[in-house]
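User: I'm putting together a small comparison set for a docking exercise, and I want a reference complex before I start. The sequence is below, and the ligand is tryptophan. Could you produce the 3D structure with the ligand included, as structure tokens?
Assistant: Of course. I'll restate your input first, then give the structure tokens for the complex.
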Amino acid sequence: MSKIILTGDRPTGRLHVGHYVGSLRGRVELQNAGEYDKIFIMIADAQALTDNADNPEKVRQNIIEVALDYLSCGLDPARSTLFIQSQIQELAELSFYYMNLVTVSRLQRNPTVKAEIQMRNFETSIPVGFFTYPISQAADITAFQATTVPVGEDQLPMIEQCREIVRKFNAVYGETLTEPEALVPKSQVCGRLPGTDGKAKMSKSLGNCIYLSDTADEVRAKIMSMFTDPNHLKITDPGSLEGNTVFTYLDAFCKEEHFGRYLPEYANLDELKGHYQRGGLGDVKVKKFLNAVMQEELEPIRARRSELERQIPAIYEILKKGSEAARETAAQTMAAVKAAMKINYFEDAALIAEQASRYGEK
Ligand code: TRP
């Protein structure tokens, strides 16, 4: 069986370092390792519209931002198909049939949907399209017969729901769809990077994100004002690592080689943590180290982005070509689905012949 990746992001803003360590960095590694037969990366504009129906301009403007972030991180259109969800009409068609395989109560139990409904204060006025987006996400994944879906931890319930739809479809209509597996980052920290204020989730409205496209100065300022241990008042005080955002970010970004370059007094992160916990290590020193580490990773991304920002029409051309290629694949799956469901009447010579002879015999 071929190994196929599908994943994507909603274009509601520029991508931040949470997206990066949670999924984007891993996708680029997977792409470059060359072990997958096909990689589809989708800008999920239709899904973004499920909770931004009254603000289509926001979605429209952010498609290019996400594309710029993808390309500047190293996704390569020669090796990965980058496309826009709304341009693949088969996704809507598949969703329409999958809806019959899912109950309302199952959707209500989806933990991601539950959390997002709360976050958006939708409790009494949930748009139906939003409520059913796990179904459309199953269409996204299965349309490409994806075997592997690299995502952050928060998306695990979506993949589980997709797997259920696949099993149900295959049980009712015969083996047609591929059951995908989620691929989450190895380290827990990377699956869920907190905001710079220490809050669990990074979000634009909370203003606690470091964006991939932030300038070096913006990144430095955000790091220097990061949430640490509120009880670590004097340098000599023992410090706590629990919920200490600076150390969480170091867990996600720091490699041993960084110590030689930027903080040679310590051999590795464990030594640095040990000193912090014993007392005698100030927050500013740790933050400066984190800044050096993150700038090293973000600088090449920033540099590529500023190149790419001068090639907007070419990027739309990449997305157009990618969308055309993606449609071809989705159309093949759609044909298989229709055949399995036996709603491909005009291609079903046996059906027509059988009915003709039934009526003919009378
Ligand atoms: N729900 C994902 C997010 O919010 C985006 C997405 C849409 C997606 N369709 C997908 C991710 C299919 C993986 C597979 O980030």
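Residues 6-10, 44, 47, 137, 140-141, 149, 151, 155 surround tryptophan (CB under 6 Å). The mean pLDDT is 95.
User: Thanks, that's exactly what I needed.
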